[in-house]
Structure formats: C-alpha cells, structure tokens
Amino acid sequence: MSTASEIYGKMWSEKEYIIVLQSYYQYKESPQHADTPFIRELSDLLGRTPHSILYRLQNFTSIDPSVVDPKRKGKAHITEFGRRIFKKWSDNREILNETANAFLRDEKLKLEPDLFNPNPIRIPITFNNYELLDEIGKGNFGIVCSCLNTKTGKVYALKVIDSSKIYDKDCVSRFSREIKALKSVEHPNIIQIHEDNLDTQRDYPGFVMDLADTDLSSFLGDSKNSNKTSQRPILDTNTAKNILMSILNAVQTLHESSPPIIHRDINPNNILRKFDGEWALADFSLAKFLPPSPTSTTFATKTHIGMGTGHYTAPEQYTSLKNADVSSDIYSLGWLMWELFSSEGPFPRTDPSGLPKSLEDIFLKAVSYKKKDRYSSVIKMRNEITAALSTIKTNM
C-alpha cells in the first residue's frame, strides 16, 4: 500500500523555508524568474521545481514590510506557518545565515549517490502537474493543502482523504461522493474541481480544486476586529448582499442539477472567497444526490448519524442525515442570512431577530422547525430576498 507522501509528495518543511528565506535576503534586489541561476540551483538542491522556489520568494515579498514597490509586492497566498517562520528568522539574520548554511550542507550530502542511496529520490509531482506546498486546513474527512501547477505557476488546493479515515468505508464513500458531486456541477459560486484520481487511486483518493483567499468565518472575524465599535451587523450591506446572493445562486444550481444535490453543511466555514473575489460554496463531504438518480445508491452510509455544523443544521438532520432534503439547505440559508444582516448577537436568536423588517418574515419562514412550513424551493426564497434587499439602504 502506498503512502500519501509517495503519491502526492511532501509539504514544505521549516528547513526548506529557512534555506529559501536566506536566499530571499541574499538576492532580494536581483531579477527573479524560473530561469534565474540561484533559483535553478535551489531547485536542484531541494528537489523542488523552480516555480515552487519562485512562489516561496513571492510569499516572503508579499509580507515583507520593507518592500514598498507595489509592482514587486504582488499577492501570494502564505500560511500562518510561513508567516511565523518569516517573523522568527527575519529578526535573527545572523543566526538565519548560519542555520541555512548548515541545512544547505546537509542537503548537498543527500544528493551524493552512494552504496545505500544510488538514486536520490526526488519529490513526486501529483497528477503529473502539481507540487505540494502547505497544509491549509481540514474538512470532515479530508486534509486540504495548497499545491502549485508546475507548468503555469498557478496555485490550487489539493484535498486528500485523511489517513486516519482510509479504513472507514463510510468516510471513503463520502469522500468519493464529494468528488462526484463537484464534478457534476459547474458554477462560479461553487468551488471548481480540476483533476481527481478517483478511478485510479484506491488508497488515498484526492482532487485538485480552486484555492481560496479566505473563508467566511475568518472574513467575519477579521471584519469584526477591524470594526472599532464591534457592532452587528459586521459587514456593510453591499458585501453582505453579495455573499448571500452568491450562495443562494450556488445552492439553487445544486438543487436544480441533474440529479439534484443537497449540500447538508452550509455554514461560514464552507463558504470561501476565491482570489478573483467571487464567494463560493465548498466542502461537499456531506452532500447527497437525491433520488431517482442511481448515483444516490452508489455509496452506503450510516444514515442514523446526524451531522452538520451548529445552529446551521436543520432539526431533522440532527436526528439523521437521511432526513435531510432541500428544505434542510433552506434552513441553513436562513441562518446565513441572519449571520450577515442581524444586529443581534453574539448568540443566534429568532426573537428578536435583529434583522431589517423586510427580511424578518423570510428568515422566520426559512428556519421554521417543521419542514413543511419552510420555502419549497431556493428560487422562491431567493426571489423574496431579492425584493426585500432592494428596500434596504446601503451602509458603508
């Protein structure tokens, strides 16, 4: 049985970060591109592609306070791990040089063929195109890492099943279903899948998808921290409208697809902002194809287990995932609207809702305890929300 690292490669280590950070300072003012000699040298030494080395240099440039040239600053995704390394070692440049040089000598020794290592192993390239970078998060059953397209230099996200779940048939089934669900729809407000190995990789299935700039939970937290009054609603009206309508459009597309798909886990953690500014729905690990599609019976699951996220989960879903349907997603959308527009908090509440008057009845209908009292479709809910939002004054 192959290991995940044999299939997908290894994430960047602190040692590699330190070596490239030293070069960043050494060649800070030099031209930098994939064919630059020092980048080629680092690539050969670390077994990383030139695009990967260049990307790390851009990471450091993007957070270096001494760089004021907007043409060089750019926008490069860097994890908290990378930020900590930059801060720790940038403040100790002399120690950085000594440590990096020691690591460099160690890497050079690893490249020397000998009796026990005649062919030094290079880091594998996933799907023939992608090089693994950093771990950036975890879903219900999978680990999400950033990865680099070695041909274009563009960064994506790679999701692989958690190694602790590979013997759990239910988890493997759900992970497979997530891939099938994402492959079956295409919409700007749904995270797009680019490649997968579901048909060829039984041990550690994975897929490449769009990389996000942030998720809605973090975005709300950052916005609240930057708001001196810390009052709700946290976001300005235009931003809240954009997010809500984007996710309504995404869920409507899912429900109207053939076969219909219900998400079953709509919440701020699974709503992502892509680098193009679009908000998109992600994490389809609890998604379900609705009958009469034959796909709906492809995977057997433990339907007696209720899953979801906090108050976003519909009451019927707490009892069993099997009970969830279109109205369960509508319930979650109601609470999303509350999150974006309510002046009440911090705890979710329906009375008083704190919502603008034009949204209050829509909210109460969407989050009704009984499924039959909710909207019968997302499009009906969306039409009423669109009309209501047109009456709300914009605040900035």
How would you sum up this structure, described in words?
It is a single chain. Strands 1-2-3-5-4 form a 5-stranded antiparallel sheet, covered by helices on one side. The protein is globular, with a radius of gyration of 24 Å. The protein contains 14 helices and 10 strands. Helix 2 crosses helix 4 (50-63), helix 3 (37-46) crosses helix 4 and helix 12 (326-341) runs antiparallel to helix 13 (357-366). Strand 2 and strand 3 (155-161) form a beta hairpin. With 396 residues, the protein is an alpha+beta fold. 36% of the residues are buried. The model is unreliable at 293-305 (pLDDT under 50).
Q: Nutshell version of this structure?
A:
The protein has 14 helices and 10 strands. By secondary structure, it is of the alpha+beta class.
